[in-house]
Amino acid sequence: MNIQIVQGPGNAAARIGLQPGESITTEGGAMIAMSSTLHVETTTRKRDSGSIMGALKRLVTGESIFLNHYTAQGQFGEVFLAPTLPGDMLRHDLNGAPILVQAGSYVASTPSVDMDIRWQGFGKALFSGESWFLIELSGEGTVVLSSFGAIYPLEVNGEHIVDTGHIVAFESTLKYNVVKAGGSWMTAILGGEGLVCKFQGQGTVWCQSHNARSFGQALGPMLKPR
Amino acid sequence: MQIHIHRDGKTAGPYSLEQVRQMLATGQVQANDLAHHAGLASWTLLSQVLSAVTPPPIPTAPAASASRDDGPRDMEFAVECRPDFAFLTVQVPAGQTLKVEASAMATMSSNMVMKTKMRGGLSRFLTGESLFLNEFTAGGGPGEIGIAPGSPGDLEHVHLNGDTIFLQSSGFVASGMGVQVDSKWQGFKGFFSGEALFLIRCTGQGDLWFNTFGAMIPIDVTGDYVVDTGHIVAFTEGLQYEIGRIGGLKSLFFSGEGLVCRFRGQGRVWIQTRQLPSFAWWTYPFRPTKD
């Protein structure tokens, strides 16, 4: 399998080249173009594992409940994937080290990658109007992620705080705790920082330069009421 | 993929694709040796096996901040700040005229004379494009014009030589006077989508520039290729196209993939890595409510 990120960082796309017999699992709606010889299958869960519960969880996270599987049959085929918002994409090899991905950043994974949903700060999320869910990707294989804006790795050694809206993914070796930014809910909400994630330990956090929700909120008041 | 090699009357292997490539590089195997892997009906020349599994190179060469196009042209031009904020500058020889999408002119030398023309009449109106193209003529000497398309994105140049290119309705940026710009309503093929595919037909002789929202990727089609309708920028005439869906019944409803266009034949399709309607829809939850 050949996975390339092209045209980054402004409006990146991922080109997945599939040899006969190889397949890739993608988020529903990510395909922008492909060889017509690829076989497409839509499932409510990860193939060969997972459950209806898994699918339900995916529904709640705001990720589409459905995953598409593209498989090259008799011959080489390719598929181009891209997210909705402008920004970069990241190709990452797991090598047995699991990562947690912010739900909206998942684009694709190779079939050997296991997928599970982690519920995160549900009560806090409701309180602040900010929902934040994570997809755990583990096993061997390659994953493709997307960011709003540029993407940069942050090496945590000890303790570090990242706004939840700026997290793309992080290594599961890190302990994490979603907390309010300030001392009280009042400062958290008025300060506009909402929820932040406090990381502890050693590992990489992949951050995005921009916060999609902040951009939406900046844009919203200028748009026609719905 | 596990590959067996037949050489000097002996069969060896299986080897991985990577091993075979290395052996080929070091001369342990030859391109005209016979090779076989699961799924192959018979022993085949190794060169053919490798070319069947080797991904063709991406035709795009994203040269940062510069135009990749040094092919034939009537007018000298430069495209800067690709692929995210492409900006076109054209040198217009004395007395010559350039057609430019309405409101796309950003800068020009003061000897450029602008005239507004209505083109294509009703059909151009149907494409949802502004009804007007402006014509810029270099009066009294050569002139220069800087053109910025409405959406941030990429820009491509082709030189038409009697051939035809179809553009997605908002893709037209500029052209020479020898290029006829007509809209061609795609009709009922796109009817069910609610996102009817309107096309502009550009034919004749001369320079043509078109743009995207997001970056542009050219794809050379031989046989069949599928493109999400919202990501089509342009394609060459001669390709047959058909609007449809991907996958089976389940994919029809749940894949999240909208309508796709299936191209067939030999030619080139330009796709864009983002699309405006999806972006516009993304803003929906952020819009204020009425009361």
What would you note in describing this structure?
The complex is a heterodimer of chains A (226) and B (291). With 226 residues, chain A is mainly beta. Chain A has one domain: Double-stranded beta-helix, CATH 3.60.160. In chain A, 13% of the residues lie in helices and 46% in strands. Chain A is built from four helices and 17 strands. In chain A, strands 9, 11, 12, 14, 15, 16 and 17 form a seven-stranded antiparallel beta sheet that branches. In chain A, strands 5-6-3-10-13-8 form a six-stranded antiparallel beta sheet, with no helix packed on it. In chain A, strands 1-2-7-4 form a four-stranded antiparallel beta sheet, with no helix packed on it. Residues 46-50 and 124-129 of chain A have low confidence and may be disordered. With 291 residues, chain B is mainly beta. Chain B folds into two domains: 2-53, Dna Ligase, domain 1; 77-278, Mitochondrial biogenesis AIM24 (Double-stranded beta-helix, 4-Layer Sandwich), CATH 3.60.160. Chain B has five helices and 19 strands. Chain B has helices spanning 17-26, 46-53, 121-126, 249-254, 276-282, and strands spanning 2-7, 10-16, 34-37, 44-45, 77-80, 87-92, 97-101, 105-108, 112-118, 132-138, 143-147, 155-168, 172-176, 179-185, 198-211, 216-228, 232-236, 240-244, 260-272. In chain B, strands 7, 9, 10, 12, 13, 14, 15, 16, 17, 18 and 19 form an eleven-stranded antiparallel beta sheet that branches. In chain B, strands 2-1-3-4 form a four-stranded antiparallel beta sheet. In chain B, strands 5-6-11-8 form a four-stranded antiparallel beta sheet, with no helix packed on it. In chain B, a hairpin with a 6-residue loop joins β5 and β6 (87-92). The longest helix of chain B is centred in the N-terminal third of the chain and has 10 residues, at 17-26. Chain B is extended and about 80 Å long. Chain B starts with a strand and ends in a 9-residue tail after the last helix. Chains A and B meet through β1, β2, β4, β5 and α4 of A and β16, α4, β19 and α5 of B. β4 (31-35) of chain A pairs antiparallel with β16 (216-228) of chain B, so a sheet runs across the interface.
